[in-house]
Design goal:
Helix content: 40-55%
Active site: 654, 697
CATH class of the largest domain: Alpha Beta
Radius of gyration: 47 Å
Catalytic activity: Hydrolysis of proteins in presence of ATP
Number of strands: 30
Structural class: alpha/beta
Organism: Desulfosarcina ovata subsp. ovata
Strand order of the largest sheet: 23-24-22-21-26-29-30
InterPro entries: AAA_32, Lon-like_helical, Lon_proteolytic, Lon_Prtase, LonB_AAA-LID, P-loop_NTPase, Ribosomal_Su5_D2-typ_SF, Ribsml_uS5_D2-typ_fold_subgr
Largest sheet: 7 strands, mixed
Number of helices: 26
Strand content: 15-25%
CATH architecture of the largest domain: 2-Layer Sandwich
Keywords: Coiled coil, Hydrolase, Protease, Serine protease
Amino acid sequence: MTQPNEVPVSDLRCLCDPSLFDFETTADIPPLDQVIGQERAVRAITFGLEMKSAGYHIFVTGPEGTGKTTIVQEIVGKAARQLSTPPDWCMVNNFKDAYRPRAIAVSPGQATRFAKSLGRLVADLKIRLPKEFQADPFRQKVVEIQERYGEEKQSYFDQLDRSAGEKQLKVEKIPSGYQTIPMNGDAPYSQEEFEKLPDKDQRAIEKTVQTFQEEIQTALREVNRINHTQQKEIQQLANELALFVVRNRLDLIRENYPDQPEILAFLDEIQADMVENVALFLPRQANGDDENETPANGNGLSLNRYRVNVLEDRSGMQGAPVVFEPNPTYANVFGHIDKKAFMGTLVTDFTMVQAGALLQANGGFLILEVETVLAHPQVWESLKRALQNKMLCIEDMAQDMGLGTASLRPAPLPLDVKVILLGGYEPFQVLQNYDAKFNKIFRVRADFDYEVVRTDETIRLYAQFIARVCKNEGLLPFSANGVAAVVEYGEKAIDSQRKLSLRFGAVTGVIKEADYWARKEAADRVTEAHVFKAFSEYRFRYNLYEEKIHESYVDGTIMIDVAGEAVGQVNALAVYQIGEIAFGRPSRITAETFMGRPGIVNIERESKLSGKSHDKGVLILSGYLGRTFARRYPLSLAISLTFEQSYSGIDGDSASSTELYAILSSLSGLPIRQGIAVTGSVNQKGQIQAIGGVNQKIEGFFDVCQSKGLTGDQGVMIPSANVKNLMLKKSVIDAVAANRFRIWQVSTVEAGIEILTGQSAGTPDSHGNYPPETVYGKVQQQLTTYLKQSLKLKKQYASKK
């Protein structure tokens, strides 16, 4: 029969009744197609996605394992399918400044087609233009021009020859120009003949030569003018021919983009540049004899200038893009500019510009994990700048940091993207408090919960979630009792009888492992036995440290009494966290009280093994003792508290009530039952407050008691507020049902000390005095004794002075 303050067996665990489900296996129900228990987050995300004003980017917070990444991708994907597909992007040459290439937008799915059409254009012109320039009509026109201008040039040379003959001179062409030679009849003067002439004749001949040289220079200038005019006319003829060929070929491409002015303008630029640099399409001349026939390919340019670099092609895409970038380095997010080695240096051009996640998501949505973004400070600062300015710059990071050689600086692209950051609470708070721009850019916060209220509806949704996992992962279907076992796991995972865990990462792990054990048995479905097997095997894989600690209790290395009575000694409960595994184990707390300087000596704090929360809990004890026993006279009491055999740090206030019970026992002289372990924090009013890890603490003490032998008088005393958190394992529940183990609930210190000592705590009279036979009466008597003795000693000391 349940005694007062004992928790009934029915309250030790919330069971899920398989009869709640109207299916034989999860294969009979539709998979989950909605989000469980995240209405707040879903509404916030939906608002952020639909809000078109600047600055309404989204920051999604929530614990790990709640499925926020998957849920966000599903919600964003659904919203993206309702939008139109944004344009493709191509990087093209800037014919005015090759170091500032620019990006142009192309209708969705047409970027690759556009690039190929220009590639075919260049290949075609490399064949057609040489043929046109080598064809008879063009060559004949060139010959006509050359003959026409040749006659005009020849007339100047004929005139020079006549003038030279009249002046007894002869003109010869030499590599460095034209040479004038004086004539002696029909033969030129030799050096000896010239020197024999009188000085007067020599000076006359030299003057005649000098004057004639000026005539030559005048004639050469005229010839050069004629050559220039001739070349210009040939070039004009070549340009007209090139324009005719190029324009006809480009018109075929223009027909495909009648409503895209940016492409049409670019094609006009290509046309003008191809006509100007038509020599790029012609074979190089073997020598310079015919340099005036056709323009020479000697300007160092390349046909790559007419290529199209497809940065993003959305062929086959339905709706707007959704991009998740798991590794947000600067290059992966903003793009980069490749380089290649050439003649001992690094070179690049616009064809080596590569797009990043921002451009891929342009016109849609980009999902990033904030922790990995903040690991690259340059990415975070550049991302904020891009979102504020709505412009994307693809830059060479090495050059931006003052490293490397000169590189390209592509013109900025217009940016229209919605960014969704995924992260925890800590980075969100840091950014919100210390980054002035953060709140202006990420105005929407979507907060994911880790639990949901347990109702028949949420339990049925849990079953549909299991059906979804089974379908997506190709797992065996779960039976009704198998689903019930998973639901109970969802309760135990958050230590609540009224809530279900929304950490679906861990739940999915249980589902997969249960499927493994079912297949090992060649079963056609997963039952509760397979789910329990998955629990136990998972525990076994990780609990080596737990077992080692447990052995220390069994072999007496750690001293714990689970039977008998002791004064000033209570079993507290602590939780150990090893990775994902948490387990509870008892720890002995002892208290010694004596006359001395008023106050509590916390040995853990003095030895610097105590955390702030534990220190606070100990300090609260002074408030309760003063409130209860020092209303009319001061306490003349010193207290020493410690966790026995504790050599590492201690924190948390869940043992504060345990420490108080040890103090009350030491003062009253009443022994405490050692078969009872205690947990719970206390406030200055003496109320017992809820603590965490209640299931692990109970199960940990039960394991120790079971190993040392259950007597029926053992158990755990917990705060009443924690009863709703009980999700104990089957062995504990069976022991309680068989009256071999007990769970008590208390809400006050008085109720707790009565269970531990078996005596009434006592109720004070109007003067604050407690009945002498009660626990508090005995405490009061001891405090009075200490006070009287203290006063006596003071008088003796004063009389000696």
